[in-house]
Design a protein that fits this description.
Blueprint (H helix, E strand, L loop, with lengths): L7 E4 L4 E7 L5 E5 L13 H4 L5 E4 L16 H14 L6 E6 L1 H12 L4 E7 L12 H23 L1 H10 L3 H11 L20 H10 L3 H12 L1 H10 L9 E6 L4 H11 L5 E6 L6 H4 L1 H18 L7
Parallel strand pairs: 3-4, 3-5, 5-6, 6-7, 7-8
Antiparallel strand pairs: 1-2, 2-4
Helix pairs in contact: 2-3, 3-9, 4-8, 5-6
Length: 317
Amino acid sequence: MLYPPPGRLIDIGTHRLHLHCDGEGAPSVIFDAALGASSLSWSLVQPTVARVTRACTYDRAGFGWSEGGPLPRTAGRIADELRELLTRAHVPPPYLLVGHSFGGLVMRLFASRHAQEIAGLLLIEPAVPEEWMTPTADQRALIIRGSRLCGYGVTAARLGVARAVSVLVRFGALAPARALVKFVSRGGLRREDEGILAPIWKLPPESRGILRQAWTQPKFFEALGCQIESICVSANEAARAPLQFANLPLIVMSSASADEKRLRADAALARLSAHGRHVLVADSGHWIPLDAPQAVIDAVVGMVREIRRVGATPSHP
């Protein structure tokens, strides 16, 4: 492998997952990324948090350095796999869970299923399960389109086309790269679809080559496509899970430029806990961990210090 994993590959029984922990102390901060993202999304956050406490990022099955896993790739299955990963890697609770976007569904389920292990929850523009439980015609079209694009990605990766695109992008030949992708996708890829994967231009330079390497592997597109196809199942799992947030330290972060629907949903989620806060982040879009990493760092470190101050013993009905 051109880029070796920074962490360890842990066998969870069905496949191996990549886990990268740094730092010492409690609570253990566990990060989960957005729909098409990996542990690399926390590149600007994890090193600073690790100076304060144990900070762990991981790659969901099929992403980053992790192996592909059993299907379907629902948020519930992913939450269970994360719990098994932490157990087998001997990462002790209590946990401060941090989830961005789709990762917010995973962390909500994890917190619901293992409430006694959770010391706090930070959700960054989390996916709103109620919006995807019964998809509209437009949402169904988005799901079909995302799944189809991932199917093109699998084909491109198997044929070596994805590697060729990666090389062209690396050398700045964006027009030929787009032309090649357009050919493979039968013209189905629009300029705005490029953001379905991850905003590579927002990552630190040393991480971009690693991400390009991931995009040349069929396992990535297979996993992402299945997550997209299963989004309604994931939403129903999260919406029906009992929310045990009444006294849990909880922060929900939103971009200050988000639309009113997003802001209302995030504010309502924060109100589920007596210790909940809704934090607006200026000068940021949806990718807050990359647009405004210091805001995330400040929120995580503040929660760690508060959890330590009150005793770090999870206690919430």
